[in-house]
Amino acid sequence: xxxxxxxxxxxxxxxxxxxxxxxxxxxxxxxxxxxxxxxxxxxxxxxxxxxxxxxxxxxxxxxxxxxxxxxxxxxxxxxxxxxxxxxxxxxxxxxxxxxxxxxxxxxxxxxxxxxxxxxxxxxxxxxxxxxxxxxxxxxxxxxxxxxxxxxxxxxxxxxxxxxxxxxxxxxxxxxxxxxxxxxxxxxxxxxxxxxxxxxxxxxxxxxxxxxxxxxxxxxxxxxxxxxxxxxxxxxxxxxxxxxxxxxxxxxxxxxxxxxxxxxxxxxxxxxxxxxx
Length: 276
Known about the structure:
This protein has one domain (about 1-260).
């Protein structure tokens, strides 16, 4: 029951924020404001519903040191996507033709903040965390990663390969990031940094949603394996490789810190339900 309540609460914020952003599409200032409000509201609602349904403080989204954690995650996301673009550009698959739209970048700042917060609260804060309690880290990582990738099949220029790439480089990686840090601020920052770098800085297609109007005026070309095609650089093998490397690093950290949760056996579940 707590799972359903938490899921519905986060989905409600996501839907309202998405509809509001769609209603003001083209107005960078309102998009920025609505995105920021949605992100803040998502955090407030998540903390409230966890307190109400689990009768505890949501340590995974605690407010002590949140800025530093968010900043570290954002830097990782920015650096990772910049490295992907640098490799694509080195082989001639990314070309900058001039300056783009600073106002468009500001609008994307709010939009990407809302997307990062709501998606991380939904997939890592609710789905991964609760599945992990029952099935363990490995099954939770696999299931939520696949669902996260499949969700992107609904995007206009989505492909099966693109969704598969997202599952590997983002779904698995962000779950591993949460497992390593045991807080949501780092994966939120990583998710935001990655998305904003793609759309707000390098002006490329983000997960098959068409090209963005960011700081740079640029274009991609070449085979899908290099550029990602219409899906965007997230469909590039460079992005997949980068995601795999970070996933391995985060899982290594999770294991070293003792954060890997084993699968609960039927006997353990039965024991847990016995009242002392």
